[in-house]
Amino acid sequence: MIASNNKTLLFAHTAPQIATVYTYSILYIIVALAGNSIILLATTKHHAIKLDKITVAFIQHIAVCDIGNVVFSYIPGFVSYIAGKWVLGEGLAYVRVYLGVLFALSGSVLVCGLNVAKLISVSDPLGKVWGPSTTAQCHAAVSGFWMISAVWPACQFLVNPDDFYFDYRVMVTMYAYTAPVWRWLAPLCLTLVIILPTCVVMVTTGCLVVIARKQHIRRPAVSTRQWARQWQGIVTVILIGVLYTVSFLPHALYYSAYLGDSSFVREKKFLTLETGEVVFVELGADGVPLSGVLYTTLCSLGNMSITISNWANFFVYFASINSFRKFVRCWVRALFCGPSAVNRPARGNLSREFLSCDGYLNSGASKDTRSNALPRHARICKTY
Predict the structure, then answer these.
(1) Pairwise CA distance, residues 357 & 370, whole Å
(2) 3-state DSSP helix/strand/coil percent for the chain, to nearest 5?
(3) In terms of DSSP bridges, do strands 278-283 and 267-272 run parallel, antiparallel, or are they unpaired?
(4) How far apart are CA 201 and CA 198, in angstroms?
(5) Which pLDDT does position 332 carry in this prediction?
(6) What is the DSSP letter of 88?
(7) Global pTM exceeds 0.85
(8) How many Å separate Cα 192 from the centre of its chain?
(9) For 268, which DSSP code?
């Protein structure tokens, strides 16, 4: 039997709250899975995001991370919310604890790496300091950031793999941190995987804003393709950094207080009731079980806000990257409106580049190969 905290104390939701959670959860799951799947399709098969290789590699890994967050954190939480308890079995409880933590933390580390890589590439365009030249080298470099993210769940598993419970605040299984070693190990992991990456993202985003402002002032009279791609890459990374900071900051603040401040939670322990039920209790400085606003509301708000970046990245790329925007528009027209809608502009004079789907066809392959990548009914685009 999986232990849990106090359901009566922490799971008192009104009808409007339940309706809000249901609506947001369904929309979030659909948009996040569809959006990130389109990002992966656009970058792996059609090369529709025309930025430097290291930035594209980070974008692909961030999309995988966002899908992992949906699959291993939000979907189990939504199922538990509907059932009012954990119903997915003990095996999936273990999977949720460790893979959920891995994907949640890797988001912050990957965004940190993306900002640092973009800042280095802009400051050192010739790649003398650091610059993977091939796609394989880029993915190998990005994989190192996954290794950093794996430090925390690895420490959890090594200290005590069975030290977890079902948390009614977030409706998923969570690690309990009851071992004494976490009094110094938790602040160390917190600094390495949450506090330091968040600070780096904020600083590098500010530096990129300054660089973007200078580049905008010095932009050429006639924009070249190289300048446009560099500008779009900088703007994209800035928007991702701002979005990450806004969405992750409440989560970082809560865990900084929860794991970093020993006076916030004085004691954590599992209690066995007379009925045989095992309950997880967290006591405050006064010896009373925690139930205040910081413990309940900020925890729920932090776990809810962190989902914003999981579904919003798609819209960031759509707004800031011309080639990705053309890719999405062409596929939407081809799939939902038929080939006639692709051939005939709805209004205005659309560019010849858009009508030929050059935003994702011009990927370095031969003309015949690129045209065969289109859906059957959209291959008529190649006639333009």
Answers:
(1) 10
(2) 70, 5, 25
(3) antiparallel
(4) 5
(5) 84
(6) S
(7) no
(8) 18
(9) E
The DSSP call for residue 126 is T
- Spatial neighbors of 359 by CB under 8 A, at least 6 apart, are 48, 322, 323, 324, 325, 326, 327, 330, 353
For the stretch 128-178, pLDDT in tens is 555 566 888 888 889 999 999 999 999 999 999 988 888 888 888 888 888
- pLDDT computed for residue 366 by the predictor: 42
Residue type, 109: V
Tokens for 284? Answer: 């405050």
The alpha-helical segments, DSSP class H, found in 218-336 are 225-260, 293-305, 308-320, 322-332
Q: Which amino acid is at 263?
A: S
Give pLDDT, residue 351.
41
Q: Measured between alpha carbons, how far is 148 from 343 in angstroms, rounded to an integer?
A: 48
Site of tokens 């030929």: 356
Q: Look at residue 178 and give its three-state secondary structure.
A: coil
- How far apart are the C-alpha atoms of 12 and 17, rounded to whole Å? 10
Q: Is 16 helix (H, G, I), strand (E, B) or coil?
A: helix
Burial (CB count <10 Å: 0-12, 13-18, 19+), residue 41: middle
β-strands 172-175, 164-167: how paired? Answer: antiparallel
| Beta bridge partner(s), residue 37 | none
The overall longest dimension of the chain from CA atoms, in Å, is 79
Chain-centroid distance, C-alpha 161: 26
Helix 151-159 to helix 135-149 angle, to the nearest 10 degrees? 40
Query: CA-based Rg of the chain, rounded to a whole angstrom?
Result: 24
Segments of the chain scoring below 70 in pLDDT: 1, 5-13, 124-133, 217-224, 258-266, 274, 284-294, 338-384
**What does the block give as tokens for 30?**
């659909």
Residue 16: predicted pLDDT = 79
* Sequence letter at residue 18: I
Are 275 and 287 in contact by the 8 Å Cβ rule? The answer is no
Distance CA 287, CA 75 (A): 35
